[in-house]
Amino acid sequence: MIALLLILVPLLTGVVSFFIKENKAVRSWAFISSAITLAVVAGALLSGKESSFEFNVDWMGGLGSNFHLKMDGLSKLMCLLTAVAYPLIFIAIQKTEYKNSNQYFGLMLLTQAGLLGVFTAADALLFYFFWELALIPVYFLCSTWGGEKRIAVTFKFFVYTFLGSVLMLIALLMVYNSTPDRSFDIESFYSSSVAEGKQSWVFWMMFIAFAIKMPVFPFHTWQPDTYEQSNSGTTMVLSGLMVKMGLFAVLRWLLPVMPFAASNWTNAVSFLSVFGIIYASLIAIQQDDIKRLVAYSSIAHIGLMCLAAFAVNKTGMQGVMLQMFNHGINIIGLWVVVEIVERNLGVRKISQLGGLANSSPTLAIFLTVIALANIALPLTNGFPGEFLMFNGIFNSAAFDGGYTLFGVIKFTASSFGLIFTVAAGLGIILAAVYTLNMIRKVFYGETNELTARGISLSMNEKVVLTIIVILIIVIGVYPKPLLDMTQAATDFIMSKADVSKFINK
Amino acid sequence: MNALVLSAVLGVVMMFSSIWLKQKSAVRTVALAGIALLLLVNILEMCGTVFFKVDLRDMLQFDRFALLFNTIIFVSVFIYFLLSAKDMEKVGVNYAEYFALIFFILCGVVLSSAFKSLLILFLGIEIISIPLYILTGSDKRNLKSNEAALKYFLMGAFTTGLMLMGIALLYGASGSFMTAQLASMSPLTIAGMILLLFSMAFKVSAAPFHFWTPDVYDGAPTVFTSFMATIVKAAVFIAFIRLFDDAFNVMQPTWQLWVAIITALTLFIGNITAVFQQSVKRMLAYSSIAQAGFMLLALFAMNTIAKEGILLYAAAYCLATIGIFAVLVKMSDYTFDGFNGFAKSNPLLAGVLVVFFLSLAGIPLTAGFLSKFYMLEAALATGKHFWLVIFAVLMAAVSVYYYFRVIQAMYFKEGNESNKLATSASFNYTLVVLAALIILLGVYPNVLLYWLYF
Question: From CA B205, how far away is CA B201, in angstroms rounded?
Fold first, then answer.
């Protein structure tokens, strides 16, 4: 019942928002709605009755598809992230002007409904429904409010993701056709037997859909432009929550459903991820626009998570889940700071800023903490996540053995685990380079005319940033509750996805 | 059977109504009452009440599939009348005759959805085509309308010839017109089948037999384009599916590759050409070719899912396209730029148009998605020509481009605020109901498909 409620609250309040004409009222309405969602999630997690996390009714009888929602540990974590992030986002953009704000907040809430649907759906067709439904409001959000080139950029983003989705649809249909009881239910998917020749097809069609969403190199080209052009609120939703859909789908719908194909292609996927980490980090160093810098840094971080997911190792898997949560919090924090700087000073070019620490020290402290979390310094939340992931990648059995590309090029290394770990570790160093560089140039150094004015934080912004910093430090010191939450889900995914015991590469 | 007799009678009634009724609104009311009656008697037949007990000698068979399809068509026509009947006044003076012709076409639709004999098929297709030639040319003083009618007539007559030739060959091979007795592997049968395949492909405007479509759809008065592109197209498709299901099902390996190639070509040409159009009306003409490509997947697969799916597809496509055309008719500027700022001046109309376009593009929660879903599933279930399915979804992604261009123009571009369309409240309500129907079918398709079995 809880699962259904989670979707209904934002859906209904979102629809109602369209009819609230008054600007102030709709903002409060949206905030109340997101607070209710948070309360529902928190209440459900604390009370902890397992039966309340599942909801199953008949839907399309003839097709073998039910309206089936089910929350395992991973879903709970993602729902928690969505529920926590939304009120923060709404407070953070409280001061930002939006034309037709009723539509803006209505669409934001509809997006939340779609996201929560994706995170809870336990039926492949339903999952696909929500996957697309989360996209449509975002399309309107990004196209209506944002930079000058927003329409073309958003359209590219939309076509890209749509292409991925339709490929995924075929993959889902192929799995459906090979389920024992012709059903879209997730349990049937887990026990499906896709013909050997078709497995790679299914794997790649699904992976491309998810890779576009994450985004993993080379499917990332929509991302920096979209983040740069769309409005801050939407960018927070996109980068904090929506890209997690891709990782989530890999963990829940790809690895356990197609374990053999995934194991077969692990090295190819990991190579893309690693290449993406280095490539995105190098580009991030060159960026002058803070938004683009954060966008590329996000590609690098997601690449690492993708790599760790495909390592199919218990420690690494735990790390991915934890880091999905952390990355969501951290990047929203970064965007909040960027939003504050841009709203107050009207620029976001690194070269035009400098010495902000003198005129607005509070902001500098907040940003530094968030940035340090972004480069995974110990005691911040980034550290346990990345440590677990690296541990997993290094010890993974998935990368063992030689690998033949197109049957021609032979790699004969006995294990790629070490190579991938080192290369991904390089990404961390590069992350430190661009992040610290950004802090140095924006907050320290000479104050110029623009930055001398300083930025005084409003109460709202202080609250948001304080909550984020507290989350960063608490999770960094004591990640156990979150790890406990995902424990069972990890064990389950590992039991399905770990095929190293069957394969003698 | 009920609908067949009544539609012919109604055609005659409409013809005479212009003598008795001087007011156009009265004519319109009669037509609306007529189509409602037609719908009613058809539903009665589905429930088992047949008014006319005629010995059909097995030449017609009103099974569930045919009756359900007719219901879909009559509902679509009813909505079409509600939305666009008033706009037919602008076409010419012979207002009542247009309705008469439409009822005759419906008579042909009923025939071609229930035939069991090639003769009935031929009769049905011709009864559909000939009134259409007239409707295409009904804007007598417009050169483009005349050109379209002539083109349509010449090409149509030519393919009718092909079709007759095919029927003759099949008769020669099997000695029968009954579809159930045709299948054999003799060269004569195969030649006849190929001729029928080509002529039907022409009628549903499948590539490479599609060249008449853009010109005819563009030249014909917009109200009638709406009718042609939806109801007529769906009807011919059902005839197409029925023909190949009844007559040539066992020969599937022979024609499957042919159909696969035609499907791929249709999808490719329809979608790619639609991308380059400047006029929304012409874009819709190409989009109708593209949608036909998707419907051809049902022919390609020819299994239970395909037959369920084609009904859903027919409903989804007809409803969405009728809605779009109903708004388009009222516009003065048919180009994409004509839609600039449309959401500001007509928020309600823009909202429902978004639903229609999303449905055509196949976005979930709309009927368009589920119908595409059925088509893909049907094609995948055959286990053959996997490339075709991949190709179809790639083309679906292309189609997003041109459908969303309209949405972009309406919502994100600045336009002259003054182009507010004067629409009546009932028009608006009908469109909203139509959009709700599309979403209902998209969320709960069993409302429709249940009737196929119950």
Answer: 6
A140 neighbourhood in chain B, CB within 8 Å: 411
Q: Is there a contact between B360 and B270 (Cβ–Cβ < 8 Å)?
A: no
**Do the chains contact at B408 and A155, CB–CB below 8 Å?**
yes
In which domain, by residue range, is A479 found?
Answer: 287-505
β-pairing, A65-70 vs A409-411, is: unpaired
DSSP lists the bridge partners of residue A65 as A60
- Over residues B270-300, the pLDDT tens digits come to 999 999 999 999 999 999 999 999 999 999 9
A476 Cα distance to chain centroid? 19
* Contact of A21 with A101, CB cutoff 8 Å: no
Whether A19 maps to a domain, the answer reads no
User: Which amino acid appears at position B163 of this protein?
Assistant: M
Q: Which positions ≥6 away from B141 have C-beta within 8 Å?
A: none
Please count the other Cβ atoms lying within 10 Å of the Cβ belonging to residue B272.
14
Q: What confidence tens digit (pLDDT) does each residue in A459-480 have?
A: 888 888 899 999 999 988 888 8
Bond into A361 cis (ω within 30): no
How much is the ipTM here? 0.89
Total count of residues recorded for chain B:
454
| The CA-based dihedral angle spanning residues B182, B186, B188, B192, taken in that order and rounded to the nearest 10 degrees | 50
Is residue A214 a part of any domain in this protein? no
Domain presence at residue A395: yes
Contacts of A133 in chain B (CB under 8 A): 364-365
Does a structural domain hold residue A299?
yes
The residue in chain B having the minimum alpha-carbon distance to the alpha carbon of residue A164 is B397
| Centroid of chain to Cα A168 | 18
User: Going along A344-502, which residue ranges are E strands?
Assistant: 403-405, 409-411
- Residue B237's contacts (CB-CB under 8 Å, 6 or more residues apart) are B204, B292, B295, B310, B314
Q: Chain B contact for A136, CB < 8 A?
A: yes
* Contact call for B400 and A159, based on CB within 8 A: yes
